[in-house]
Design a protein that fits this description.
By secondary structure, the protein is an alpha/beta fold. The chain has three domains: 115 residues; 75 residues, Arc Repressor Mutant, subunit A, CATH 1.10.10; 110 residues, no CATH class. Helix content is 37%, strand content 20%. A six-stranded mixed β-sheet has the order 1-2-3-4-5-6, sandwiched between helices. It is globular, with a radius of gyration of 23 Å. The chain starts with a helix and ends with a helix.
Length: 326
Amino acid sequence: MENLAHRFIEYITKLAGMPVTWGKAVSRPLPHYLNQQYALRKLTVGKRAFLGIMIKDIENFRPAAFEKHLRQIMANDAFDDFCLIAQELPGYTRRRLIERHIPFVIPGQQLYWPELGVAAQARKTARAPAKTETFTPATQAVLIYALNGGIKTPTTPKELAGKLGYAGMSMTRALDEIEGSGLGQITREGRERLLDFPTDGRTLWQEALPYLRTPVRKILRIKEDHLPPDQRMKAGEIALADLSMLVPPNEPVYALGRRDWKKLADRVEQIPVEDTGTCRIELWRYDPALFVKNNRVDHFSLYLSLQDEEDERLEMALVEMMEKTL
């Protein structure tokens, strides 16, 4: 415990630039199973008081369950906020915490604590573009392109526009958003701006997750035989079933971009309910065909499309898929 306290103080002081205190244990009238799972401490950073929640049983810790536990832990609390603290956490658990906006610190390794105004692995740039909370579809397409190995050397907005089918101005804005988030490295060669991602794919994915959202903007249903075979890009649960032990759904799921759907929309009837021969169509914010592999949507977009489904089977299959991918 003393070692963890020392590492926490040293790490947060360095990142936040404010005095840090590891205070006394905090007592709460909690059920026995919560006391077995967590230890509570008063923390001060600068002039603010936080409740430090240390995870005792890392192996059985689940972010979704923690959100329910938190309501009991923080009931009628006088602290400004809280922060989870752990010696170590699996990569998937860290990503789920970030997605759920749950602050955590792994001293010496990673910090996600928006209340302090610092980000994990902060980067300084000569120019500080305006930050954004959620990337535009064009910017997300650039990130997915990079995560799928499309950007191996520094790339210009013009080159990205040609590869991804966007206007040059959209790619210029995408570079602005990526630079503002600190995810990519922007350099200049004459009048050209060049984008590169010096971090490994696992780190980039983890840091990009808070800015990414589901690519699915709408779901509708049509007769499967009305969808040309060359446009049947597997998506949703049917794609995940290909990559795991999941049983595929009875109704196939396919992804379409805006342009492909526009060509079909006037020629097909939308079906209100599942019926014999129907399939579900996910209309995407960016073109899924850009990253299709083995007639399936890419793993990163597939994860984003299913991450909010509250189904333990899907969660386990997504974990398995991303561990293999990264």
